[in-house]
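Morning!

As promised:
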Amino acid sequence: MTDSARDVMDTRLFTLRPEDTVAAAVARFQQASREAGRRVFGMLVVDEAQHLRGMVSVYDIFLLLRPKHTHIWGEMTDLDLTGLLDAACERARPVLVGDIMTTDLITITPETHVLLLIDIMIKKHVRRLPVLEQGRVVGMVYLSRVFDYLVGKLVRG
Amino acid sequence: MAVIDAKNVLRGLTVAEAMRRQVIAVHAEAPLEKIIRFAFKYKVNAILVQDPQQHALGVVTKTDLMGAYYAGLPLDTPGKAVMVGPPLFCHQGDSLDQALDLMRQHRIHRLYVYDEDPRLAVGVLAYPDIVGMLYRFCTRCNRSILRRKRADTDANLAEYLRVREVMTPTVETLDSGASLVEIMTALAATRLAAILLVDREGRPAGVVSKTDLILAYKHRLPPETPGERIMSAPVRTCSQETYLALALRDMIFWDLYRLFVIHPEDHHLVGVLSLSDAARFRSGTCRACLVSRIAV
């Protein structure tokens, strides 16, 4: 089958373990960005048997950094908050990936048609889709790669 | 009632203006492990349980999760087995006062909000969100206690309030050798969100919150585990003579809801300061507002 996930997926995978800390996860994000030559905003979480357990994205890390009680003190504009972000980062570093990962994942197979996967991206508001073959992760489809692929097709017309 | 109404600075505000639109929900079959992760990740005390049509079935709170841990339920137990329902709703067009009355009647701090379909949650109204709004209104209100005092003394009293004026002068403590079971029993009996563990000399050793307990549950620690293993230490304290603004800043920096208050000389515990109380006091909230009459 042509124009399927297989044509647009990245097969070089960077993964995390549920027992990794957030500090280790962000270091891996940086490493992955360097090695893949593009910004990595989300990473799969797999167990020892390489089974997909979840995904951690930048949004999950935002949620973790977000202070819990801003609804109470957010109106107090007169307080000096120098250093607040450093304190939040300090608290976030030891948290485990398994405690903040997203587990409601939509997965596709290498045979999923590109038009079907962009339909999923639109309807579910996701930018990346893990590609599974017989229960194992074989790739990842990123919105940016799909875009490049579609642009390539569109200009030729 | 009419007199109170006339004085109410929040009058005219609706639920829609104060509610959060992000409702953290799971389906009825979602395992407790996932519900714990959601409570931790989204920093909420309650998770809504919905049917496949997204109609509200019930609520699982951190207290319910702690109860499940206490009862030894497996982590794959579905949320519907421990949820309490149906949840209480208010309409997004209701006045904030009506909603607060409902909270007060039922002694709860959270209402789900519906729009057209009375079973569909479009938002959630939590008491602490209203405390934040109060700050905005009360600091500008003519009836604000601080404004009235300020007129007398011509000084910015909000800057000079001290912790001892605002704190609750009682503290629940447990021995630092207490097990998680004993801590859960104490928390269930007191309706508190966290308990202070003290050493043999009565000095603060650590704090165990409901969040710490549900994470211990998720990490499969046996309930007989000593509390010391999961407690947050050192305990964040402040002197009763500290300025309230400084204590508030500490709570914000450490992302805490409460600070334990100690005597400046002998360092023994004299009370606890909650963020809501500090915010209400600092804003000069008076008894004119219905909202100020709900115990946090």
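Chain B touches chain A at residues 34, 37, 40-43, 126, 128-129, 131-133, 135-136, 139, 215, 218, 245, 248-249, 251-257, 275-276, 279, 282 (CB under 8 Å).

Hope this helps with the figure draft.
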